[in-house]
Amino acid sequence: MARRSLTSEDVRRHNLSLVLATLARAGTASRTELAERTGLTRGAITLLATELLERGAIRESTASPASGLGRPRVQLELAADDAAVLVVLIDADRATAVVTGISGERLVRVERRHGRPMGDPGRVLDVAAAVVEEALADAAGRRRRILDASVVVWAPVGGDPPVVLADTDLEWDVVDLLGMLRERSPRFAAVVERLPAGARLTADASVAAAAEARLADDPETLLYVKADSGIGGALVVARVPGAAATTLRSAGSIGHIPVVPGGEPCTCGQRGCLVTVAGPDALLRAAGLSEASRADGLAAALDEFERRVRAGEAEALAAWGTGADELARALQIVSLLTEPRVIVLGGFYARLADDVAARFVAIQPRVAAIVPPPPVVAGVLGADAALRGAEHEAIDRALADPAVL
Description:
Layout: H1 8-26, H2 31-38, H3 42-55, E1 58-63, E2 73-78, E3 83-90, E4 94-101, E5 106-113, H4 121-141, E6 145-153, E7 157-158, E8 163-164, H5 177-184, H6 186-194, E9 200-203, H7 204-215, E10 221-227, E11 231-237, E12 246-248, H8 275-278, H9 280-286, H10 290-296, H11 298-310, H12 314-338, E13 342-347, H13 353-362, E14 376-378, H14 385-399
Parallel strand pairs: 3-6, 6-9, 10-13, 13-14
Antiparallel strand pairs: 1-2, 3-4, 4-5, 7-8, 10-11, 11-12
């Protein structure tokens, strides 16, 4: 099928959203700074800024020179003070809903444990609906209008409309998560009804990877691998200046690379998958902490596991040693195929990233002396990586249509 040619209107709309996205990230910027950051001419920025000022999408403010001398500089900033986005995260332990202003300030956060009822998405969605109702009620009290809504899950997503394809962490098969959430949350259903694109359903690894890439100054290629209950990942390639990163989901199933021949059966149908030896549930089971996970929640049990590893307790050290060695081997396999500039470890792995990095370096081939391996570093966003990434993407989508601001 022939690709549609861009028109001058397409270019104008793209440039308007580029200016808005740049201001959203910078907070404030002068017209000259906008020209430098976007690559557009000063004349183009002047015309675009004039249109956005007339629409009320941005406003002018002033900032004094650093020296305190001379005329104040005219700065531009977003003016859509009533606009916001909604992001819902459903993980293996909790349901969280956040409402975030269009400039990136988080306004509302509500979260509750769902107790991890295996094989019962309805009970999980009951809790998710409750936090969404509370978050949206708070947003309504602040007179915020929701311009974008997305739900993030720790599971692969596909189809049109999108559904959860399977969730080994919660023992789900195909689940129409968005439909179930609309049925349980009248406020969510009303928001989705007003949005032209409806709500989005997204796998967590891709948005978490994009968020970490932003903070790593957008390296040409970044491999992100995280462990929360399962193991997931994504490969982020270079972003076009001013645009969102392009995220490839080719590393999304890294947890199901079979690393132990004839190993333990995995819920995916294979044997010896990485998740069976290096996934958080596997580590906790090997360290005798499965009951603590059921009683206190996954996050608390992983805190205790880390404490025992750092304290040198034999059972936890043995579990971690086996898992970390296999994780390093899996990173080696994927990095040889994808050649990332940096490997970022998220979720629980971020806490022990230095140890994984040392094991990764120890198994490098001899050519590593000529072509150094990519550094392995800890992600900086911790458990909030997916939320932050989804917030960024939701804001970018909202700013892509200046007419709605």
